[in-house]
Design brief:
Blueprint: E1 5-11, E2 15-24, E3 27-28, E4 32-37, H1 40-52, E5 61-66, H2 73-82, E6 85-89, H3 91-97, H4 106-119, H5 134-164, H6 169-202, H7 204-213, H8 221-230, H9 240-247, E7 251-256, E8 260-266, H10 272-288, H11 290-301, H12 306-327, H13 334-338
């Protein structure tokens, strides 16, 4: 259905700046703006205000926001429940599309988002509804990462002190002081990982997808959970190449005319944590699976750089991930059968 109502919302930690533009025949109305609290009560007030302004939350309406990490979570859940088209756009994409823009504040940004929706209505793709099991898993993964970072920080500090200390008893005394903290962190980490497994089993579709991903050589427990969370149960990507691009493992050309002829490079705009996990998966694959080990050795003999080969393996893994999920069938290792 053709859109007539375009809503731009600038999301911050505490507030939502909402602006809308109405398309009237061949003309556009002036942007109308109002601010609400970024709470459930604020969202209900926004809904009432839009109704008063005769802006229906229907198929004729499209909402555009920028990706803000966790701050747009309530908004995403709210519009998913109402089944309203919500487009969560990359902030850089919105900024570049506006050209040269002077000045910035939340009110102006909400109006610019509404105008962005008008100009790009024909190409905007609504973000799939938020899967109910994804947010708990994302929060648990965040907690897990923080626990690992804190544990490693303490262990590294103790190792450094051991090397530079002039007394043999001093590092031992410090280790004794920090041992309860380390033990507590390790216990919390163990409980967090168990909770991740419990949450996975609460949703049948999520758990089925998780088990399918674990059939792929090289894809482990945490990488599978990350892939499920980052792709919103594989609803955010429509192809394996798109998923690989999001993971930052697709090389792009860098050339222009006859003067610029650079090497192929992956783009820096990617999910860095997912890319790191895939790198570890690629290293594991080379060590434990004959197919990837043979591929790595063959490409090395051809003169390929080691990191380039690893990136190609990461790309292969991502494409297999998408194929397994799309076909809803476990991975079959034909290479091992042929050998």
């Amino acid at each position: 259905m053709k859109k007539k109502y375009f809503i731009g919302i600038d999301v911050s930690k505490h507030t939502l700046d909402v602006a809308f533009i109405i398309q009237q025949s061949s003309s556009l109305s002036q942007p109308v703006w109002k601010q609400f609290n970024n709470t459930l009560q604020g969202l209900q007030q926004m809904k009432c205000w839009l109704a008063e302004m005769q802006v229906p939350l229907s198929d004729e309406t499209i909402v555009v926001i920028e990706n803000t990490g966790i701050y747009h979570r309530l908004l995403w859940q709210f519009f998913s429940h109402l089944q309203i088209d919500l487009c969560i756009e990359n902030a850089a994409q919105v900024k570049w599309s506006l050209g040269i823009a002077r000045g910035k504040n939340d009110k102006v940004d909400s109006r610019r988002l509404a105008l962005y929706a008008v100009r790009n209505a024909d190409r905007l793709k609504p973000t799939p509804a938020l899967h109910s099991a994804i947010m708990p898993l994302k929060d648990l993964l965040t907690v897990r990462n923080k626990l690992i970072v804190q544990t490693r920080s303490i262990e590294t500090a103790l190792k450094e002190l051991k090397h530079i200390s002039t007394s043999a008893t001093e590092p031992a005394a410090l280790k004794k002081l920090l041992q309860p903290a380390l033990k507590g962190l390790q216990q919390s980490l163990k409980q967090t990982e168990q909770k991740i497994k419990d949450v996975l089993k609460q949703d049948e579709n999520v758990y089925t997808t998780y088990k399918l991903l674990n059939t792929i050589p090289g894809i482990g427990h945490i990488t599978a959970v990350y892939l499920i969370c980052c792709s919103n149960m594989f609803t955010m990507c429509t192809s394996g190449k798109q998923l690989a691009c999001y993971c930052g493992v697709v090389p792009f050309d860098y050339q222009s005319g006859i003067s610029i002829k650079g090497k192929h490079h992956v783009h820096k705009m990617a999910n860095k944590e997912l890319k790191r996990l895939l790198h570890m998966c690629a290293l594991t694959s080379i060590q434990n699976y004959k197919e990837f080990k043979d591929y790595y050795e063959r490409k090395k003999q051809e003169g390929k750089h080691a990191m380039s080969i690893l990136n190609a393996i990461k790309n292969k893994l991502v494409l297999r991930v998408f194929a397994v999920v799309k076909n809803e069938k476990p991975y079959v290792d034909n290479y091992a059968k042929a050998a």
